[in-house]
Design brief:
about 475 residues, Alpha-Beta Plaits, 4-stranded mixed beta sheet, 6-stranded mixed beta sheet, Aminopeptidase
């Protein structure tokens, strides 16, 4: 009996401890948001799971029960996944619609690698743990709960508000391209806010807010295969021509090549803010580059800093190798994968042509998948002012800083389609708390609840009746 009791306690006590540490939602809309958040974390929406359409149907039911018409709820199947588009109709007095973005899919997570079940929302020590808690189901839950809250409040926006939840942002983004290409009227908008970009930074020492970042540009992700071929032969009779050696020479040329210096208003604004708190040679280089963003000493210094090289030019780096077919045979082929992060305004084809010139005519270059390039969004004053008002209502005086992301989101496809996108994920965190795509992904509980008020405030700002001053 004692053994049985001990066994039961070993299971129950951690659960009780977790419940004891859980924060009770302070309002009904917080409770609704947490309920939705907990449920959607349980859906295994990684590639191959087939559960993303199920999650979309679950969310669609919430919108129907809240009073959204069936004609304004669109579940668009794309292969094994789907998108969900929901329109909150306004009176039309405020102009074109505003799009609100998040993605339902996640990267895989193995239970044996995690301290907790990655597909169960766990609240401990002030954090929500689970796959997708930050990337990007917090955004899905917050936007869904905000629509439900505004509907319950009988809010009538001055323009249509459109939710767009994609189903494969982490992989091929086929669901995004399909809606843009085949169902454009569903998502036509003046601009978009993306919950999968931007966000606030907390100081490591005291968790005080230091900056809020607004993402207005993204680099294109593109990979190329560089291949060298050779007749091969017996390894006992080596020749000067060798596919592996030749490819090694090619990769050294790629390593030494610097793409031209580039900048835009997002990168210069970001580097200006960073320069204010960066000491020494790098700080001086940042300040000089902002004043004169072109080739020179400052650009060369930043090119040697991994944190900044991606903000000043296109970068390409070798990431994978394969070659040869037997240990006692001269290689008949050797291939390297080169991954490029392409500066906005640069075409993928232009980067491929540059790689070809650097590599030489004897090298075959193939672009992988179907990368899509896009320009930066215009830095609209009305949009930036709206974001600043929301941030400063919570944290007065915190700098609102534009930036360009070296990574990619669904936003690049909308920018390419002519819809400007602004990344404003309303979550603050320390850099050391960034676990997206990693083990034990988490966000702060208070930040999740704060984000609900922030999203409501933003939608009221851009689509609410303006008071006369």
């Amino acid at each position: 009996m004692r053994i049985l009791v001990a066994a039961v306690l070993s299971v129950v006590f951690p659960i009780l401890l977790s419940v004891a540490h859980a924060r009770t939602p302070a309002t009904s809309h917080q409770a609704t948001a947490r309920e939705i958040y907990e449920k959607i974390i349980s859906f295994k929406t990684y590639e191959g799971s087939g559960q993303t359409p199920e999650m979309a149907r679950y969310l669609a039911d919430h919108f129907r029960k809240a009073g959204f018409a069936d004609s304004d709820i669109h579940l668009v199947p794309v292969g094994e996944t789907a998108t969900l588009v929901v329109r909150y109709r306004g009176d039309g007095s405020g102009g074109k619609p505003v799009l609100l973005m998040a993605h339902m899919d996640v990267v895989p997570a193995n239970r044996e690698d995690w301290e907790r079940d990655p597909f169960t929302l766990v609240e401990e020590e002030g954090f929500f743990f689970g796959r997708g808690t930050s990337d990007n189901k917090a955004g899905v839950a917050a936007l869904t709960a905000t629509f439900l809250r505004l509907k319950a409040e009988k809010f009538v926006p001055t323009r249509d508000l459109i939710i767009f939840f994609s189903g494969d942002e982490e992989t091929r983004a086929d669901s995004v391209v399909a809606v843009i290409d085949k169902h454009r009227p569903l998502i036509e908008a003046e601009y978009a806010f993306n919950s999968d970009g931007g966000g606030g930074v907390l100081a490591e020492a005291d968790a005080k807010p230091t900056v809020f970042l607004v993402q207005g540009a993204e680099k294109t992700y593109a990979s190329f295969e560089l291949s060298v071929r050779n007749p091969g032969g017996h390894s006992s009779r080596p020749r000067p021509e060798n596919a592996i050696y030749d490819l090694a020479d090619v990769l050294k040329r790629v390593q030494k090549h610097h793409f031209p210096v580039m900048s835009n208003e997002w990168t210069l604004s970001n580097l200006t803010a960073v320069a204010k708190t960066t000491p020494g040679e790098v700080g001086n280089a940042l300040r000089e580059f902002v004043k004169n963003p072109r080739e020179g000493t400052a650009a060369e210094i930043l090119a040697n800093e991994s944190e900044y090289v991606g903000l000043t030019r296109t970068t390409c780096v070798a990431t994978m190798l394969r070659g040869g077919h037997a240990e006692n045979a001269l290689p008949q082929s050797a291939t390297a994968t080169v991954n490029c992060r392409i500066f906005p305004g640069t075409e993928v084809k232009a980067v491929q042509e540059t790689l070809q010139n650097v590599a030489g005519n004897g090298v075959a270059i193939k672009v992988l998948d179907n990368p899509s390039a896009s320009d930066a969004s215009p830095m609209r004053k009305d949009v930036m002012d709206s974001i600043a008002r929301v941030v400063h209502a919570r944290y007065s005086g915190v700098p609102v800083v534009p930036y360009m992301s070296a990574g990619a989101t669904d936003g690049k496809f909308f920018r390419a389609a002519g819809i400007p996108v602004y990344g404003v994920g309303f979550l603050f965190s320390k850099e050391s708390e960034e676990y997206a795509h990693g083990l034990n992904e988490r966000i702060r509980v208070d930040e999740f609840y704060h984000s609900l008020d922030d999203w409501r405030a933003l939608l009221m700002d851009v689509a609410g009746k303006k008071r006369k001053r």
